[in-house]
Amino acid sequence: MLTDLSGPYRDINGPNGIACAKQAVAEFMADNPGIKVEVIAADHQNKPDVGVGILRGWYDNDGVDMVTDLTNSAVALACSAISAEKDRVCIVTVGGSSALSGASCNANTVHWTYDSWNLAHVTGSAVTKQGGGSWFFITPNYAYGKAIQADATKAVEQAGGKVLGTAVYPFPETTDFSALLVQAQSTGAKVVAFGVGGSDFVNLMKQSHEFGLNKTVQLVGMTGFITDIMSMGPTIAQGTVLTENFYWDMNDRARNWTRRVRPRLSQGAVPNSMQAGNYAATLHFLKTVKELGPEKAKGAGRATVAAMKQMPTEDDCFGKGLIRVDGRKIHPSYLFRVKQADAIRDPGAIFDLIATTPAEEAFRPLSEGGCKLVQG
Fold first, then answer.
1. DSSP 8-state assignment for residue 346
2. Which one of 97, 259, 292, 303 has the lowest number of neighbouring Cβ atoms within 10 Å?
3. Is it the case that residue 181 has pLDDT exceeding 70?
4. Are the C-beta atoms of 362 and 330 separated by less than 8 Å?
5. Rounded to an integer, what distance in angstroms lies between the CA atom of residue 223 and that of residue 305?
């Protein structure tokens, strides 16, 4: 597992994301004691060269068969390419660029949980149709930020809205967002959208309240997760709109899984969709290893991914699903609004469901992605 253990995305995945993957391994080994599975993890520091260096060592020297997590799209894209070169399995559960199942797709990579098209389309379309006709975007200057802003702009415009302005900031150097927020306020946009998660999203929300922006516009987390919401607190978060593909309190299966994994998590934490993705993706990979046999699976990453695509997915976090030919795992997406602070009765039970997008509509159509694996 390559993840962020020291930077701005540590809290949205990091150690708790590792814990969720280890939960999948523990459950699998309990049912299949003859198959030994080992989880190792490292910090890519949000630097593609660091991530690639670690992964090459794992593949060349340590017998690693599959890499997952891959917080940060630039790291994910680089590690996806290395995995194809080395014929290993790459399951991106956190890096969000839709290019991973589009122009940069390959036969060794599966893209789980979410992507920039998914979040942008579900959030942009629904919020625009509900009256948010004018938008301003604040995004970081890296691959994922550019991707989600482009995808969201298209979704907003297709829904009849318009983008009044954008602001791009240096990442990870920026901590003071005041100038960007003043710029957003000056446009008169009805919606101000933040194309970033983690500590930057938390800081943007806190500073938005300091400027009173929350009183005049709809604040939208284009890449916001429940872990971010918990971090900023209910008073700051209330009323914020965001899309997640998993919510721990959504149904009995999700709640039961959360009860099982929670002893592994940091105190007071509830899992977000990416951490659930680490569990579900690891479990599906291991089910495929069992089906193929460990030796065959270790010998050919492309064959393993092909088998993963043939086998329907099924887990307590996302229910039933499938992996398309372009490597995109699909499942329903959910648009949530954070409850008002005085309406939250249980810590972590903080979302009201606004809309559900079916799996077949929640992700970019195969014909539009430009993936070379798609025929016709």
1. S
2. 259
3. yes
4. yes
5. 27
